User: Fold this.
Amino acid sequence: MNDPIDPIRRVVFDTLRVSTGSPVELSDQTNIMSELGLDSVAIMDFVMELEDRLDVSVPLDRIAEVETVGDLVATMRDLKVRG
Assistant:
């Protein structure tokens, strides 16, 4: 489900670009830790930003399952739908 106008996907990608200032081209396959260099604290800060922007609450066990940007988009989408 890679709809280019998906608002949740756009928020995740835009927030990641601002948060990391990373020159890495983002895709659904981008690994958050190894390719973007985010440590666990930076990931938590980033997820808190997403929670605020998307009005969702992400359980810690769901964050632990996220490895790629695509995983994160899918998690946020799932939480938003269930919200």
